[in-house]
Amino acid sequence: MNYGIFELLKLIGSLGVFLYGMKLMSEALQKVAGERMRRILSAMTSNRVKGVITGILITAIIQSSSATTVMVVSFVNAGLLNLVESIGVIMGANVGTTVTAWLISILGFKISMAEISLPLIGLSLPLLFSGKRSRKSWGELIIGFGLLFIGLEFLKNSMPNLNENPEMFTFLQRYTDLGYGSYILFMLIGTVLTILIQSSSATMALTLVMCANGWIDFGIAASMVLGENIGTTVTANLAAMVANTAAKRAAFAHFLFNVFGVAWVLSIFPVFLHWIERLSVFLGIGDPATSVEAMPMALSLFHTTFNISNVLILIWFTKLIARIVTRIIPMRETNNDVFTLKHIKIGLLSTPDSSLFQAQQEIMLYGKNTESMFHKVTECLELPNKEFEKQFPSLEKMEDESDNVEVEIAHYLTKVSESKMSTENSQRIRAMFKIVSEIESIADSSLNVAKAINRRNEQHVIFPPELATKLQHMFALVEDALNTMCTNLSMEYREVNAKKAYELEQAINDYRTILKQEHLIAIEEKRYDYSTGILYNDIFSECEKIGDYAINVTQAIKEIGHEE
């Protein structure tokens, strides 16, 4: 046998070049698409047909069904897509990923793309050194495209020659004539390979090369493709393991959809294969049963026809699929913590842009939770002592949770900043660090207000009605400021309502000044005792600090908006 360790390493290295080219091209495409890709995904999902079309378009653009499905899972986790909408997009992603197989089978086997890949890389090299982000992304895209086909050429040349190594053919032959057993075995091999490589496109390329070299016949190759469709669902399910129940359901729906498709095709596999063979001959591709040259394109035809047929059958049952996965994965989230991570638990997405969008969603939630905490504090002012004693420990716990969330978001942003960043994204991350720090300070000051109320209760101090009314007015101003801050956090960092934020901050400052002056006069005139005055002063002073932190958040958001 002439195939040793060195030849095996060449084969693995070839696969590595192919995978790196695919990764580089996919990430560059996502950078080029940028915000538009996310807007399409969140806007074009109002019904199941639009969802499918969206999934097809995005996956065809970014050349990675795994990237699309992980993004869908993160959107469901964020509450931007519901379960039914996500199922439609995932169905479309399965069809969109077949574009890669067509690219490989047409350009990689019909045209010698490796011949022009190096000149293409040479032409695009200057783009890598461009100061403009979009040009740099286009350079990475072309280089990734070139490396993909260079890797494919290496892969074809590294595959062992069956004429020189007949032992391999004998080994394979043992398992290719077991009827349905062979189909199921090679389907499982396709599944395991895709799980190990973490790329259905790479496994598809391997299958195409094995076909072209005559290792396996058309039926065996088609069964491997079925396995690849199951294996590709693992990525999204792994991402969803740390996500909420809705995201777990979306990922499992992807698995269920693909498994059902594989099951019904396997049940009529000989008939389905025969139909694909006839369609291949009709389209002028050739008969894959007798022609090795026709097999790569016929296999791409099988892949596309299988996925489109599966979508056409199951698109009418998206609500039923949603009900099934809801039944299988019941709601188990009983966490009563206000400050919990919801979005970045999934981890980094495939590009800094996508990851920063995820961080933005987490920061928006952090702001809303902090606003909710302050509202709970304001309710404590009028609570009876016994009721407040029950409430106060939960406020202390919320502040501790807020500290933890700040650390987790900062840690996530640090991990994002370790990847290759554009100047705009670096500035965006710096602003986000400032925002989370200011939000955490709001939680600190909110607890300080609660502590002042606690001291008031312990000292048996009763605020005169006039002071209580003034504090309620101050609370209302601060709540308006926090509400405006949260509205600005929910924007695309472009339409910031800075005017209203500045007006509210000025109103809080002015009212604090008025209260301070009135307080000093009241102390002089002995309208209330000094201990009451200290507690009263502490509360409205902390409120003024919260107003400062809120405007700092809006200013940081405004800086991001100007940078983009």
Report the helical percentage.
over 70%
The best one-word shape is elongated
Number of domains: 2
Give the rounded overall mean pLDDT. 80
Task: Please compute the radius of gyration using only Cα atoms.
Answer: 30 Å
Question: Major sheet, described briefly?
Answer: none
Distance between the termini: 60 Å
The low-confidence parts are none
Tell how many strands the DSSP assignment holds. Answer: 0
* Structural class estimated from helices and strands: mainly alpha
Strand coverage percent: under 5%
H/E element sequence: HHHHHHHHHHHHHHHHHHHHHHH
Number of separate helices = 23
Overall description:
The protein is mainly α. It has two domains: 311 residues, no CATH class; 220 residues, Methane Monooxygenase Hydroxylase, Chain G, domain 1, CATH 1.20.58. Helix content is 80%, strand content 0%. It contains 23 helices and no strands.
